[in-house]
Write a structure and sequence with these properties.
This protein has about 500 residues and is of the alpha/beta class. It folds into three domains: about 200 residues, FAD/NAD(P)-binding domain (3-Layer(bba) Sandwich), CATH 3.50.50.60; about 120 residues, no CATH class; about 140 residues, no CATH class. Helices cover about 30% and strands about 20% of the residues. The chain has 15 helices and 21 strands. The longest helix is centred in the last third of the chain and has 21 residues. The chain is globular and about 65 Å long. The structure holds flavin-adenine dinucleotide. The site of flavin-adenine dinucleotide (FAD) has 34 residues, from helix 1 and helix 14.
Length: about 500
């Protein structure tokens, strides 16, 4: 008899949340993580005494009564998180080269309309229409509001509507169209494919409320792992799963890199479905399914510069900055080579050390995986930002980091003199360390032209093998949490679970 009811491959947010839910429901759970650090994109790293987030810069929906607040109460972490509310009147600021205005995305639906109406006085009615549509679109996805529902998502209106066209149908003001979509690096928004529901679900959660995690998002991982262990769940690091073995129609065990075999009754993969198929030793899954999953495009990747700042030199700002060189936010990700970067985002972490000054700053610019072609066959498992792939790679990184800093310096003239040190990461860093296919920021890219193709069910053809994580429904803290509810709903019943969460 196997020791574990459920073996979970990967300790990303989805893996940990699934482990929590199933442990709470009495299952004996084991989580296997390939890296030393748990949490996947929840993890932080420290350089020059400054803390850097790797994949959680801010979180939405955390006010009382909102979806993530309620979910985090269920996970018993809400009252233990150290959070900082962002600027009510402009948590995100969108700007464009040659235009000194910083356009504001404000918290609260009315406030969102109000703040942007001050900047676009003729567009108040369009802004009201936009917000009405955002709310209406979210209503088509009841799980995102923790509403019980058995209806499959597939019948949903808005799956096949293009974001760029939808926003353009609300206002003819091109600047406003770009402002409304200006935070699209949050979902790697591509004008040629991103469906409007992706835009709506993501921006809605931040308009509801926006928070930073003080001293980083790893506190979510720490609290979840503590709670899982307290309920008898086990979590192992340095435990890379290299094979998932099926016999007589069910998965019997997984094999680790060192050859150890771990048996279980059920298995949940928190890693990319295509990678899961690569390590699955079975002929039960049809070739057509495997081919479909392998051929799905992943979302755009990014180049990231993490800057440690000299003490008391750079004032903390309670907003994120999204800046574009051109008035076309939807194509920014496709700009490569000498024209790069077309824009950037700046995230300023909130440190517990000071309210006035920032310890660090992160700059993110879209980057196509192909820009790293030369080094695609190199592999590095050294933790974030230390990946070494030879001098040419280092030179590439330095060149791109300097270009990005030059751009940001235009907005923050004091930046260069405040830099103590910096490090950078490329799409290859994310590919190798987190297991992100093609270094994609958010997993499989959704496409309005063929929406069903990009949906991954939590169930597979093998009855005791499941998926969870950002490739399921959507990425981000909210998307992954909803994914964990769907996955664990397969074990205990979705509506039963939603009731429990709502009663927490
Ligand atoms: C740069 C960046 C910025 C982001 N910013 C935000 C933000 O501000 N707000 C927000 O809500 N979301 C943000 N996100 C998205 C969010 O971080 C992710 O969607 C979410 O954390 C993904 O969770 P996951 O469960 O899919 O697991 P992942 O984080 O993908 O983790 C998967 C885990 O599986 C492990 N693993 C892989 N292969 C194996 C194997 N063979 N055996 C064992 N373990 C394995 C990996 O090491 C990793 O720990 C950001 C993402 C990125 C990349």
């Amino acid at each position: 008899m196997s020791q574990y009811d459920v073996v979970i491959i990967g300790s990303g947010l989805g893996g940990l949340e699934s482990a929590y839910i199933l442990s709470k429901e009495g299952y004996k759970v084991l989580v296997l993580e390939k890296n030393r650090q748990l949490g996947g994109s929840l993890q932080i790293f420290v350089r020059d005494k400054a803390i850097f987030d790797t994949g959680i810069h801010y979180i939405g929906g955390l006010d009382e009564g909102q979806n993530l607040n309620q979910s985090f109460k269920y996970f018993d972490i809400m009252d233990k998180l150290h959070l900082h509310k962002m600027d009510m009147d402009g948590f995100d600021l969108i700007s464009f080269e040659g235009d000194p205005t910083e356009y504001k995305h404000a918290q609260g639906y009315d406030n969102f309309v109000e703040q942007l109406s001050q900047q676009f006085p003729k567009e108040r009615e369009s802004l009201k229409t936009y917000i009405k549509h955002i709310q209406e679109i979210c209503d088509y996805f009841p799980l995102y509001q923790l509403k019980e529902d058995d209806a499959p998502m597939f019948g949903t209106k808005y799956l096949d509507v293009n974001s760029r066209d939808f926003i353009a149908s609300i206002t003819s003001d091109q600047k406003l169209q770009n402002v409304l979509a200006g935070s699209n690096p949050l979902y790697a928004g591509d004008g040629t494919k991103t469906p409007i529901y992706v835009h709506a679900l993501v921006v809605n959660t931040y308009i509801e409320s926006s928070y930073k995690c003080v001293d980083g998002g790893a506190q979510i991982e720490r609290l979840l792992t503590k709670n899982i262990r307290a309920m008898g769940g086990e979590i192992r690091n340095y435990a890379e799963v290299t094979k998932i073995v099926e016999k007589d129609g069910v998965v019997t065990h997984v094999e680790l890199k060192d050859g150890e075999k771990i048996e279980g009754k059920h298995f949940i993969s928190n890693i990319h479905p295509a990678t899961t198929m690569n390590i699955l030793d079975s002929n039960k899954i049809k070739k057509a399914y495997t081919n479909r999953v392998q051929s799905l495009e992943n979302s755009s990747s990014a180049f990231i510069v993490d800057i440690a700042l000299k003490p008391n030199t750079f004032e903390y700002r309670n907003s994120n900055y999204y800046h574009y060189k051109r008035n076309d936010v939807w194509s920014s990700m496709h700009v490569t080579g000498s024209a790069w970067p077309d824009g950037y985002c700046v995230f300023i972490p909130k440190s517990s050390r000071s309210d006035k000054y920032a310890d660090s700053l992160t700059i993110l610019g879209y980057m196509q995986y192909d820009e790293l072609k030369e080094w695609q066959n190199t592999f590095s498992t050294i933790p974030m930002h230390n990946d070494s792939r030879g001098q040419a790679y280092e030179d590439f990184k330095t060149n791109r980091a300097e270009r990005l800093i030059d751009e940001v310096q235009k907005k923050f003239p004091k930046l260069r003199s405040a830099i103590k040190s910096y490090s950078s990461s490329t799409p290859l860093t994310y590919r190798d360390y987190i297991g992100a296919r093609d270094g994609g920021l958010y997993g499989i890219a959704k496409d309005y032209r063929d929406p069903l193709k990009t949906f991954i069910s939590p169930k597979t053809k093998i009855p005791n093998l499941f998926f969870t994580g950002q490739n399921l429904n959507m990425h981000g803290v909210l998307g992954v949490t909803v994914g964990a509810i769907r996955t664990c709903g397969e074990f205990v019943g979705q509506n039963y679970l939603i009731k429990k969460i709502n009663n927490a």
